[in-house]
Amino acid sequence: MIVTFIFLAVLIGGMAIGMPIAQALVLTGVALMWHLDFFDSQLLAQNLQAGFDNFPLLAVPFFILAGELMNAGGLSRRIIDLARAFVGHIRGGLGFVAIGAAVLLASMSGSAIADTAALATILLPMMREQQYPSSYSAGLLASGGIIAPIIPPSMPFVIYGVTTNTSISKLFLSGVVPGLLMGIFLIAAWAFIARKHQLAALPRVPWGQRVKALGHSFWAMMMPVIILGGLKGGIFTPTEAAVVAAVYALLVSTFIYRELTLARLYDVFLAAGKTTAVVMFLCGAATVTAYMITLADLPNLLADSFAGVMGNPVVFMALMMVFLLAVGTAMDLTPTILIFGPVCAPLAVKAGIDPVYFGFMFIYVGCIGLITPPVGTVQNVVAGVGRLRMETVIRGTTPFLLMYVLLLVLMVIFPKLITAPLAWMH
Fold it and tell me: Which residues have a Cβ under 8 Å from the Cβ of 133 and sit 6 or more positions away?
């Protein structure tokens, strides 16, 4: 209990006074070292460096770069144009365009923030022009954006897999069917809203223009085919898949679509480098804390404390999801993975829960946290792009958030929704 108290008190206390999360993690590791009478500055530096020096983590900068290249090189816009050509004529069609584009973009970038920014920048002005309610439009775009970390390739799955020593390839495959279910649940919610508010539809696009839009988006659509096909066929690892995605996006943007100039390429690499630096520093800092958590045997201590609950996997999963959802409302997804992944994953294994299933559920709940106040990272993106009040975005997100929670409950009660398709695909 003393170890747990020190871990939580130093971490939460550091963040409460405005300390960056990475620095709070390092401070937490140092506090645990002092408590265990194990302080060694050289060991601290070695663990910090070990957090960066990890081959699977090379996937992170390349997936970040791929997302930046997609947005700058016109791949994201062509995917949205394709969705608009095929479903824009339905009542509330722009909402269905947003959902379809969100699912397609999710299969390419794996970044909730990047996908949400692309969707909001292009579709929010169009929704305003069609006189859609601003709250529901913004809420839908935010809710669609969080599909990105679920459908592979997914940067959070990479970080979770490295942090907890879980198969990244299996984590990738575990997100395919649930990601599609997220899209279906959004469609159901938006169809009800569109009918209730009598939302307008775009003019029907002739088949000739649909075929043209399909042709324009062909090279963009090939990216998920190459990535998923390569992973399923064992042609490359998730890390190599990230490199393939970045190189492919670069070639398509510069030589096929020709929208990415040399001057803009510098800005793309700079933006990707800044984001990578933040993520990698977090990984290094979390490695320090994770090392001390292991040394203090915290997972086993907690397992002994909650032995009664761990005897029932469904009850344990339900309580764990409530805990992670509470954490996700106050913390971004990457820090949540780095801080609580090493603690929660061993507990799940002791409770008899499949580690890949638990890893998927961990990320899914973290994604829900991205559209849940008070932090609501993705909601802030939509509010910033659309120049909307945060209250407006939160109000519009509520019906879609409830659908996601319903899906969460179903996946806790029926784990086969994830494990059965995963076994078949693997």
Answer: 197, 396
